Amino acid sequence: MVIMGLLLVQLLAALILLIILFFLSRFTTNQLFHFLRRIFKSDKTVFGIITLIFFPGTVIHELAHFFAAIVLFLPVKDLKVFPEWKDNYLKLGHVLYEKKDVVRGFLVGIAPVFVGLFVFWAIFAWQLFPNQNFMLNIIIVYLIFAVSSTMFSSKQDLVDLASIPPILIFLWGFIYVFNIKVGEILAKAGITELIISFLSQINFYLLLSIAIHVAIIIMLKFFSKLK
Question: Which residue spans traverse the membrane (predicted)?
Fold first, then answer.
């Protein structure tokens, strides 16, 4: 029971941190746009700089959609990871695939979130951050910022992400009604502690992502007042 309680706490914490990160990343991008616009005046120039800043995250985001579609046997019609300027609007990238059912469309839609979390876990697993190499620390912090800023980048992704809470509620109701002993099943499989460890590592990097965004917002506010 204690282990299951820890698992639920870590899972709830991850969901809350993801929600906070979603709103914070939107606010950071907005603040960055307005800050750069005061300097360069031209929207096209500003969009170009922002595209360059978020480019690694955009590549990861679109490739996540692409590979998820491939794995789920959904034909991919077009893939673009490089930005396009069209009709005074900058499109960072897109994956056009054939949607055959709601479930697979949902899984492809939320793939960038899970790939972003996997990137965070990989940073932990390979012990890339923190380390004694100052420049590598800077690069990793930048990568965390870019990935966390583009995990939920399109409107359709947000529609798909909004489906998660109802699905979780449905699953909880199903487990409750049929009295499925999830804790015992996980304990017998010997993966409960592994899941808790994974979630705790992910939550650390979600917290770090939030801290990076807050720091950037503070710096942008500070430099805006100096201008």
Answer: 45-74, 106-128, 134-152, 164-182, 202-223
The terminus-to-terminus CA distance of the chain in angstroms comes to 56
Task: Read off the pLDDT of residues 55-88 as tens digits, 9 standing for 90 and up.
Answer: 999 899 989 999 999 999 888 888 887 766 555 5
User: Using CB atoms within 10 A of its CB, is residue 20 exposed (0-12), middle (13-18) or buried (19+)?
Assistant: middle
> What are the residues facing 96 on neighbouring strands?
78
Cα separation, 3 vs 18, whole angstroms: 23
Cβ atoms of 225 and 140 closer than 8 Å: no
Q: Is the CB of residue 72 less than 8 Å from the CB of residue 118?
A: no
Domain borders along the chain are 2-222
d(CA 109, CA 25) in angstroms, rounded, equals 18
CA-nearest of 200, 181, 25, 175 to 113 is: 25
The pLDDT tens digits for 23-62 are 899 899 889 988 998 888 787 788 888 888 999 998 999 8
* Residues of the chain below pLDDT 50: none
